[in-house]
């Protein structure tokens, strides 16, 4: 299992674990809320019984203390209505809306009572009361504390979710910065280490040409091409971590020159072709952009098991002033579920691969050339198309009639 698959599995397990914790919290709080509901219902029933007897025992001081004690311990708001539906008494409502003074008289907010009564009817069934032989109904709703408890687990889950997102973003940013630092250090050290043997190889080829009079020897010429290639690779690594210089180039020529170098070092069974607009231009850093094309062509060639073809098509999007570069192979293809995963560091389908090529490619295109790269299309057994989008260096003025 490659590192990306392991990381994805760990994320999945942690997500499932967080969901289970959230569900357990919701169920526990729900059971606690139901217990409080039963307690509040018992309190309201006791309040109703006290109210029914209060008319007979008003002169009893002990009973008066009991009434006051019950009222203090009853947290749920109550509204009592008579047989005609008129409100006769209430308890636990907002005093600023139930009974306030004006310049002329004592008034109350009738709409507030209507709203509260409708909420009570929606929450609980009324309790029947009998005061001096007259029927009444007592409506009540959840107390403020109970209402808060109902929403607490959901608020808790939202807070935990926001905290996890913030923590994940912070750790990811920190880890990415650390990885970038390691990448830059490794790349620059590699460039430094390659400098000495490349200089030595250049000196040896010059010595061979002068000693054996081999100025026109094709083998020496190919050796010099490979040395130049090593110089380009060294230059690539030295540019990692620093802002590269982008210059205006014809895209077709840059890609064509690299294909000429690459195809002689690839199997004869793989055929290369380049088509499309040969005049479109873009701002490129050639050593880094060649690296992009090299990684795509290597992946395409490795995907072709026997004979096959690799085609590059350059398209100009005049409306958006963009350049599309499609690299299509006739290889084994990529599952649609892996379209994004192929660009992750460590992802590879080869037994002896590091899984860094496409990750570097994406970084070079997006970070250094302000472009995009993605899997445009792929079908198992038929091939894959990668698309690169670059900003055109040509500005087009709309024509006027």
TrEMBL record:
SMART domains: HATPase_c
Gene3D superfamilies in UniProt: Histidine kinase-like ATPase, C-terminal domain
KW NAD (keyword) present: no
PROSITE patterns given in the database record: HIS_KIN
Superkingdom: Bacteria
InterPro entries: HATPase_C_sf (IPR036890), HATPase_dom (IPR003594), His_kinase_dom (IPR005467), HisK_dim/P_dom (IPR003661), Sig_transdc_His_kin-like_C (IPR004358)
Protein name in the entry: histidine kinase
Keywords, comma-separated and alphabetical: ATP-binding, Kinase, Membrane, Nucleotide-binding, Phosphoprotein, Transferase, Transmembrane, Transmembrane helix, Two-component regulatory system
Entry EC number(s): 2.7.13.3
Residues passing through the membrane, by range: 12-29, 151-171
Name of the top EC class for this enzyme: transferase
GO MF entry, a single one: ATP binding
Domain Histidine kinase: 189-394
Record field: catalytic activity: ATP + protein L-histidine = ADP + protein N-phospho-L-histidine
Pfam families xrefs: HATPase_c
């Amino acid at each position: 299992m490659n590192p990306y698959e392991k990381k994805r599995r760990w994320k999945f397990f942690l997500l499932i674990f967080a969901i289970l914790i959230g569900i357990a919290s919701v169920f526990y709080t729900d059971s606690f809320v139901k217990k409080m509901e039963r307690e509040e219902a018992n309190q309201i029933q006791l309040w109703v019984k006290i109210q029914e007897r209060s008319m007979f025992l008003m002169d009893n001081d002990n009973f008066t203390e009991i009434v006051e004690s019950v009222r203090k311990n009853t947290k749920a708001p109550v509204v009592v209505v008579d047989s005609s539906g008129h409100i006769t008494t209430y308890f636990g409502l907002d005093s600023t809306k139930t009974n306030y003074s004006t310049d002329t008289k004592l008034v109350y907010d009738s709409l507030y009572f209507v709203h509260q009564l409708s909420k009570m009817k929606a929450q609980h069934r009324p309790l029947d009361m009998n005061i001096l032989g007259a029927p009444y109904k007592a409506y009540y709703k959840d107390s403020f504390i109970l209402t808060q408890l109902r929403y607490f687990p959901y608020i808790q889950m939202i807070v935990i979710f926001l905290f996890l997102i913030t923590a994940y973003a912070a750790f990811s940013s920190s880890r990415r910065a650390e990885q970038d630092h390691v990448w830059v250090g490794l790349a620059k050290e590699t460039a430094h280490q390659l400098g000495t043997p490349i200089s030595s190889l250049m000196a040896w080829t010059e010595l061979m040409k002068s000693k054996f009079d081999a100025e026109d020897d094709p083998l020496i010429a190919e050796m010099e091409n490979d040395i130049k290639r090593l110089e380009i690779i060294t230059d690539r690594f030295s540019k990692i971590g620093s802002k590269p210089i982008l210059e205006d180039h014809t895209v077709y020529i840059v890609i064509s020159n690299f294909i000429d170098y690459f195809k002689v070092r690839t199997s004869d069974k793989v055929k290369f072709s380049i088509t499309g607009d040969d005049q479109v231009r873009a701002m490129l850093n050639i050593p880094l952009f060649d690296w992009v094309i090299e990684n795509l062509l290597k992946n395409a060639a490795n995907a072709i098991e026997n004979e096959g073809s690799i085609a590059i098509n350059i398209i100009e999007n005049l409306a958006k002033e963009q350049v599309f570069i499609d690299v299509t192979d006739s290889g084994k293809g990529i599952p649609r579920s892996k379209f994004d995963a192929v660009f992750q560091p460590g992802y590879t389908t080869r037994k002896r691969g590091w899984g860094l090529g496409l990750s570097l490619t994406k970084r070079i295109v997006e970070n250094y050339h302000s472009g995009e790269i993605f899997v445009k299309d792929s079908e198992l057994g038929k091939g894959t198309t990668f698309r690169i989008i670059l900003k055109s260096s040509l500005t087009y003025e709309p024509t006027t009639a």
